[in-house]
Specification:
By secondary structure, the chain is an all-alpha fold. It has one domain. It is 51% helix and 0% strand. The protein is built from 4 helices and no strands. Helix 2 crosses helix 4. It is globular and about 30 Å long. It starts with a helix and ends in an 11-residue tail after the last helix.
């Protein structure tokens, strides 16, 4: 899943980063995918691995409620499955 694909789907679904300081929507998509791929790992372990690769977020790992709020903001309208070909 390229950043361009994720960005295009988010744009088509009308999802935008709404407030400063909130987790970016594209990052939340990748986090959700990582949770599915690494089901054996804890929420925190997945967050730690993913956050470490994002310079803006690497200073501190957001808490679980931040991820929950971000996933709620993203909503269920964003589906990538029909975009992957």
């Amino acid at each position: 899943m390229t950043p361009e694909l994720v960005g295009g789907v988010l744009e088509k679904c009308g999802v935008r980063d709404k407030k400063s300081g909130a987790l970016p929507a594209g990052f939340v998509v990748y986090f959700t995918l990582a949770l599915a791929l690494f089901q054996q790992d804890s929420y925190d372990d997945v967050a730690e691995q993913l956050v470490g690769s994002v310079t803006v977020l690497s200073e501190s790992i957001p808490n679980k409620s931040s991820f929950t709020r971000a996933r709620r903001r993203l909503g269920g309208t964003v589906t990538l499955a029909d975009r992957v070909g």
